[in-house]
Amino acid sequence: MADDSTPSSAQLAKVTLSNAPSVLKAEFSDRVLIRSIILRPDGGSGLAGQTVRIGGWVKTGRKADKDAFAFLELNDGSCAGNLQVIVKADKYDLGQLVQTGTCLSVDGVLKLPPDGKKQKVELDVEKVVHVGPVDPAKYPLPKTRLTLEFLRDHLHMRSRTNTISAVTRIRDALAFATHSFFHKHGFLYVQTPIITTSDCEGAGEMFQVTTLISGAEKLEKDLIENPPPSEADIEAAKLNVKERGDDVAQLKSAKASKQDINAAVAELKKAKDNVFKLEERSKLQPGIPRKDGKIDYTQDFFARQAFLTVSGQLQVESYACALSSVYTFGPTFRAENSHTSRHLAEFWMVEPEIAFAELEDDMNCAEAYVKFLCQWLLDECREDMEFMADKIDKTCIDRLAMVAKTPFKRISYTEAVDLLIDAMKKGKKFENHVEWGIDLASEHERYLTEVLFQKPVIVYNYPKGIKAFYMRLNDDLKTVAAMDVLVPKVGELIGGSQREERYDVIISRIEEMGLPVEPYEWYLDLRRFGTVKHCGFGLGFERMVLFATGIDNIRDVIPFPRYPGRADL
Amino acid sequence: MADDSTPSSAQLAKVTLSNAPSVLKAEFSDRVLIRSIILRPDGGSGLAGQTVRIGGWVKTGRKADKDAFAFLELNDGSCAGNLQVIVKADKYDLGQLVQTGTCLSVDGVLKLPPDGKKQKVELDVEKVVHVGPVDPAKYPLPKTRLTLEFLRDHLHMRSRTNTISAVTRIRDALAFATHSFFHKHGFLYVQTPIITTSDCEGAGEMFQVTTLISGAEKLEKDLIENPPPSEADIEAAKLNVKERGDDVAQLKSAKASKQDINAAVAELKKAKDNVFKLEERSKLQPGIPRKDGKIDYTQDFFARQAFLTVSGQLQVESYACALSSVYTFGPTFRAENSHTSRHLAEFWMVEPEIAFAELEDDMNCAEAYVKFLCQWLLDECREDMEFMADKIDKTCIDRLAMVAKTPFKRISYTEAVDLLIDAMKKGKKFENHVEWGIDLASEHERYLTEVLFQKPVIVYNYPKGIKAFYMRLNDDLKTVAAMDVLVPKVGELIGGSQREERYDVIISRIEEMGLPVEPYEWYLDLRRFGTVKHCGFGLGFERMVLFATGIDNIRDVIPFPRYPGRADL
Known about the structure:
Two copies of one chain form a homodimer.
Chain A: H1 9-16, H2 35-38, E1 51-64, E2 69-75, E3 83-88, H3 94-97, E4 103-111, E5 122-132, H4 148-151, H5 162-184, E6 188-189, E7 195-196, E8 208-210, H6 212-225, H7 231-253, H8 258-283, E9 290-291, E10 294-295, E11 306-308, H9 313-323, E12 325-333, E13 346-355, H10 359-380, H11 382-391, H12 396-405, E14 409-412, H13 413-425, H14 442-452, E15 457-463, E16 479-487, E17 491-499, H15 503-512, H16 521-528, E18 534-540, H17 541-549
Parallel strand pairs in A: 3-5, 6-12, 14-15
Antiparallel strand pairs in A: 1-2, 1-4, 2-3, 4-5, 7-11, 8-11, 9-10, 12-13, 13-18, 15-16, 16-17, 17-18
Helix pairs in contact in A: 5-10, 5-11, 5-17, 7-8, 10-12
């Protein structure tokens, strides 16, 4: 450690390494990213002769030439590929270095490998700077091929695998692409609350956020260590008050000195305070505070019942109705007992909201956004996508390319139902019954996008009975201006709608659906004062990662999956 | 609503408006952003003669020329400035349009105003497309100047005010700048979990996340509607089993037909099942499930106690120890009963983590990041920053410029304490005692950055006794490689450290601090297998917004503030 006047050894190392060419991406470390070497158009061959510091973890290692040196495949997470590193036996104990998972920081010279090798450049190590060893007998990730299911039991280590690290880079790219897209189109990022006292109606079961239980546990412990006063204690304290009162009366009638009377009055006050304290303490009840037979939420942290958000939509609408184009991108929660490969208790959602816009604008935005994401991955994550195509899903790159360039098919719900009925007439079997008014099942959605149109499909104008109160009622009075974007591989990727901006209509929709009006008063204010046509949608971010990567289980595309019975780390 | 074959009226409107020049930023709406007109270098004068659709809310309006027309200042949230809009009396009821808060969508022609006016362009309305009226007698935001405190009681409307909308744009810019900075430097965005079963030691009180209370409430309701069986019910059911058993025995001894015996056996089974069900139901206890005198968390959603995260650091470290450079940017929570202007129960943190890096790299990264944010606001948010300088804090632009270009002063904790003691010798008074070993108080930090150095200060190498177990022990065995970045106006903006990568040292630090080892086993694995030198820091995002804007209260720089007693919306 050094202050700014004396250069540290780390700084000196950087000076030595500053002959590294400018193409090597500098960061806040004295090493260079492996990506900046091997992902060059020339595969790094143009850097031959340069001295660099590299850090990473050994993917595979082997000794060669009668243990005279070792070949190590080193990966630093900056890309899917590894840099081949050659260490001679005089530099370090090679038996240690060749273990999978070993961390290594080395200085060396980049050089061209002998002809016929796959890699375009390799590193000849001059100095081993740091080694983080691995005992192969204890390492939780043996070299054998590991299943994604096995890796879910090792969340803290799984980012060291090729698949999870590629998923992480693709997820990162999709997040940055999301912010870039909305920024480019003039949307403001509004961070809606995680803890909420509103319910986005119908979105599902909510987790409760509370300090009542920990408060009750603390109190319970305290009452055991320090039991509440008995009735006898309180009676004794009351008797004391009476006696001290008598003292004062006596002194007064005896015309005692002011000093003596004041002292006695002070004693009396102390005795009264003591009774008050004992009485308060005797009222303490172990357990969660209750009032009138119900839990007393006025004693909870927020003085009312609070939950984890299921959607930022209602809140972000309040910003759209002032700032026109906004979006939220954050975690959302469902306390549903779903054990499927498509559901998580904690997942991320992207929710744009656009004022002065109608359902068609909403569809245009959704289509442009999804296309933008697909094109971004094709442009920026080629190497990781090729890994996915090779190991997980052969069709994933073609799927991205198709979605990026094909106009989405747009059909009304009514047309969609007609098409499904037609298909059944031609012999297609569905498990779920089809008729106008049903909520389309996943099998129906996937049939439309995967079989019938073989491209993304936007279904719009759904029956009002199956949709939320805030969706705009169409002139037919039967449907609402909702839309879902269906894509091959995952089915529903986006759900959105034009919002009901007419005060009279939304009020009657709330009543029609039997919902209480009071919790929505603030939401109704947006319609009472300066109301505006607006629309928005939500994209389940993990579904987009599933769509892009071809991974089957949603638990493998979020760093720390939460589902019933599991919240590791 | 139209499908893709027949153009809708909205599409037709767009065609009509397509003569708008290309500088007008298109979005998913048929209007153009006011920003794209008035923030042009020429103030929009070059657009005179163009027909455009504009949407926004009336900031102020007045009738003129004996009510022949109205002047309206229209704002759409895309920038701080308004577009002046002129509506003639034959177009609409002007009395309605001039009300503050009215929403308006209009088509009109941009024209140069008469000489001597401040604005460079104004809009002459040809057609009023939409009006969202306001009843001024009921509007919650009267035209008089409103305090930020008053606005906190109207969270859903406050983004309509100049100050909160400017803060929102600045906050958006800081978020985008954050992602841009880390993306540029090769960091991957890792979304760490919100719900966690780990505790980032010492970070503070946690909110509990549970479904036990709602489960208990549901059960309680169910038991009232459908009371559990009485002992008599169960006895009766048991008697029934006995009788059905007797039936079977009788039939068997009477050598009845197989059919009759089977029927009796089936009856017996039904009777037994019924007893089992009644007994299970009779065990149901209202209230939260308990076992061995404690709450039975195996029955909670995650089968264990779960909390809202106080920091993503520990989890993001697991990704840094595989992918080298990562960051998390998400909400974090503290269940502390703080009623100050600097604390929130829910706030956003930016936490980068860098492998192959030491404390000095950490300081370099923190300094570069803060400078980048400041320069970004100077470049991208000039107009909003000028508004802040005008209305909130005269010094805010100068402060950004100073931080963007001045090297941060770096001093060790020991030097900092010496400097504070020197200052006291020269007559400076502090409320909190100063000696080596204390945690610096806010007054000390602000003295260093605001008075002594008048620029950002990084204090590093703190006494180990006041810092967390995961900070790397220095060779002096007394201090750890921690660092805090102090800036004028807010004091501590960033806290970070090099992490202890040595297994033996971190284990003894955990034990020395009296912490249990078991919860950190996964964290220790990162040191057991392929350990790497690494470091990181956390920036309180709202503190950065306070620093940038000069706003005093943190509740005014997050869209939906949560603090004790309040979680509106």
